[in-house]
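ping. complex inputs:
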Amino acid sequence: MQLTVNGTTRDVDVDADTPLLWVIREELGLTGTKYGCGVAQCGACTVLVDGIPTRSCVTPADSVTGTEISTIEAVRETEVGKRVVEAWVENQVPQCGYCQSGQVLTAAALLTETPQPSDDDIEGAMINLCRCGTYNKIRAAVRGAAEG
Amino acid sequence: MGIMQKLTRQPVNVSRRGFLTGTGALVLATALPARRSRAQEAAGEAEPPAVPAFLELRSDGTALFRSPFIEGGQGIFSALPQIVGEELDLHPELFTVESAPPGAPFDIMGGFRFTGGSSSVRSSYPLMRQLGATARAMLIEAAAQQWGVDAADLTTEPGKVVNPESGESLGYGELAGAAMDLPVPADVPLRDPSTFRWIRQPLPRYDVHDKSTGRANYAIDASVEGMLLAAVQHAPRLGLAPVSVTNRAEIEGMRGVHSVHLLPGAVAVVADKFWQARKAVEAAEVEWGPGEASWPMPEDFSSQGFRDTLANADGEVIEIEAQGDAAGTLAGAETVLEAEYDAPFLVHGQLEPPSTIARFNDDGTLDLWLPNQAPEMFQGAAAEVAGIAAENIRIHSQILGGFFGRHFLYETANPYPQAILLAKAVGRPVKVQWTREEEFLRDAVRPMGFARFRGAVSAEGPTALSVEVVGEGPTGRWYKAPAGQDPSATEGISGKTYAIANRHIGQIYVPNPAVIGYWRAVGHSMHDFMYESFLDELAGAADLDPFEMRRGLLSDSERHRTLLETVGTLSGGWKPGVYEAEDGSQRARGVAMASPFGSEVAVIAEVSIDGGEVAVHQVWVAIDPGQIVNPATIEAQVQSAVALGVSQTLMEELVYENGEPTARNFDYYPFLRPDQMPQVHVEIVESGAKMGGIGEPGLPAVGPAIVNAVAVLTGQRIRSLPLSKHDFG
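pong. complex structure:
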């Protein structure tokens, strides 16, 4: 099947039900997208499918052919993505960092859709888990990126 | 685990050791003074032992630093350059930091080291300063020789030696070559802390950009040429072994599958790709039979049953602490309270599931890429599995996707033995990747805790306290600390600072059938909840305010009283009783203190009840680690410890039934969500006392502060965590 990831269309030879996560990590070698739980609980595997945050660990590869898939490796290719990364650095968000690819992409999607999100918007969108508990800094960074 | 505060090593110059000839770098290692002189006598020469570099100052003016401690989110890769750079006078951002390999010169805790016990900075602070100061002195000496002046007349500015007289300067990079042949000066004086440029400043961390753009690589991201991927299915209980895979032919025929293997306590499938291996191993129909295990899990084990076992334990009470006459005072007291407290098993839940790559090389050596908190220990254990000498094993320690105590060496809890056995069997490098479900089955869990309290209280405060702590601690399990000498089994009930005149703290040792491990704040993670909650019970029985009663119990300790008052002020003044918040909700606050890992902490938490569940709105933390290196890191670590403290108090519990955990993933083992995170306010008090830890101390007092607040608000005294088990409707 063909998948379009970060603007490049690639042929991948995998079983149709292979989760997008493992296609991205193993077939395309993009390891910024992380495996955390495999059951759509934590969000470490978040990628954007046509701009929408998607848990790639439970997304069969053949369900996203013909879409535009965007991973953390391409986050700085949009103005909003750049701003989010800058806000993440400015606010010193990451600790272990393992969940942050998913957090950054989720924030970028939120701010693309809603440039000036309310607190409720942020709470509704930023639902990925972080075991290091960086939640307060994530909130501050999203607000910071929105103001920028 | 003990902390080595004394300086066990000192800097040595290894610039001319073969492997770096021609690089023009000043290379410092460290050596144990005694061992060095023996080595010198034996070798009959003055060359330092052949050891890898600790600190390399390169000709481009940058530095490579090999960290004895592993980075897992706590910021150690940024803190150490901050300390070394301070004394060296080189900006910390000019350091590249790598995880050091096992062995000398990095075994700075006395022949070993580990990353844990909130001990990295405090155990290495003197040595790291000495290392930086020594390098600086050598660079000054090199400049002095070049200019033909006295070294005492020279000084440094960041990255360069300066002659204040002439205004001349030479960059460190230009001097690195000349400094290579200089002797290491002894006893270089350290900077006066009042002149610190970077230590005590909130410098940024140097890994946040990579971690915000997906470029940080963890063990799970490592790969080597020609490797195969393996997934495992663990026996449902330790003590079972695979007898056969009844549909083996079918599994072997699945796409990408290389081979199927029966391992100790597990079945593995090796395939071209991980997802192929996982799909195949999940489809494997395994017949399990009796097998070997150091801690076989009983078929009928349940957490409820084990709680009863702990509650009914009546074995020998081994004395941990005793003062005055607790028994006599309790016998004669008018008001005596008794209570039993328990806390559940917990998983670490670090977001990166464990993995290991094993690669045997043609020269008989073995390379391992793996998450770990103790490289020497893993090297030794891997040698036994591989059947080769430890020095023939290279440990490539990766940054950790969270750890919280998960990556110590726990028998059966680490994937490296499987990777070694599989690499041997297939003759190719193999990466074993555990799924979250297999991780839940083999995590070394926070032990269930139990304690029995008896206390007497008068109108002036508690007069006697007697506690029996029941169970087993991880230090007893893994480092053979006998009951009575295992702090991890009682800390948080032992080691408290309150001046209760008559007290007796004892341990009843009851072995735990589960594989137990260190979990952030270890024994403190549950015992402070028990003790500080019971303290509030005593206050309630005597109609005393819990904040004021604590202040009274700390009248002899200015340090603790200051901390308690600081958190009170930080929260806007201690607020007893129930009050209405701006949003109309009824709220209450609780207070608690803890003395974990060499630091002192006081916490106030504010809660309400929302839909029958506890909501935590605010947590105020005053923390006194004695002396500090980076206030921003401290604030971040306290935020993190509070999050885990709130999480375990509100909702975390690993339940066993029929010898198995009922949860195998985060769906049935939820932890703190973003919308449940309280606001956290941190104040650092730098009392000047001996430097304490930072990674764990923020956690222990959070739970009891919440539980005490809940008692004020609802009248319900919760003695069994988590709160989600209880109905507050």
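The first helix of chain B runs from residue 33 to 43.
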